[in-house]
Each structure stands twice: as C-alpha cells, then as structure tokens.
Input
Amino acid sequence: MHHEIKHKAEIVKNYGDIPKISCYPGRMNQVYLNLLVNSAQAIKEKGIITISTRRVNDRIVIEFKDNGVGIARKDLSRIFDPGFTTKGVGIGTGLGLSICYRIIQDHHGEIKAESEPGKGTKFTITLPVNLEGIIGNGANSGGNKD
Output
C-alpha cells in the first residue's frame, strides 16, 4: 500500500492508548486497506490521510480522514450499499465499502461516514473492547486474534 500512497498523500498517525482487543485481524486489515485505497483515490494531487485511534468507555474508535474530493450529501446514505460507487466506470466495483460494513457488523461495531465535497471524508469505526464477552469465544476461534 505504501507505494500507492507515497506520492499522493502523507499519512498522519494519531494513535491513542487503546487496549488489544479480540478481532479477526485479517478481516480488519481488509477494512483498513480499503479505506486507505479509497482515501488515496479521492486525493487528486497531494493530500493528507489521518488515522486516529482512541478509547471511549467500552469502545475503541478508529478514524480515517482525508482531504480528498469528498462525497456528495445525496450519495452518503448509499455508500455502504453493494454495487454503489461514486468512482465511475472501470475504477471500482462498489463492493469495498459494503464489505467493510459487513466486517464491522460481524465485529459488533459500527462504521459511519461524514463528508463534504471539496473538503474530504472521515470514516469512523467503533468496536467493542470486549468482543469475546459479547459473542463467547467465537472471535478467538482458530487462534486468529490480536
């Protein structure tokens, strides 16, 4: 991913003090990668992508914010719909954000988007600190947690 972003955007990391949580790391990496790719594609020249994390009570909050072209208000309510894309023909399938949405739901979390055309977009993910307690040991199956 670095080679795709390095000429388009500076990545600013504002990582807060958060605990390790149970999750499906491969699936969460898919979410992070998709959000980074979308941000890079939304930046026309040189931009900034900010990744922030923090804990709020019993939740972890992860934000991806860019200063790209943004998303029109009329499209915001549809961006998580399978097949919907604002990128145009041949650029995207419209499945990335719907997959992200499903992965976050599977983690008993939420993903929301805020955007303003010409100013950029922010995706906010919230995840429970105690996922194992919520779903039993399902998030720990196969030893694939972090």
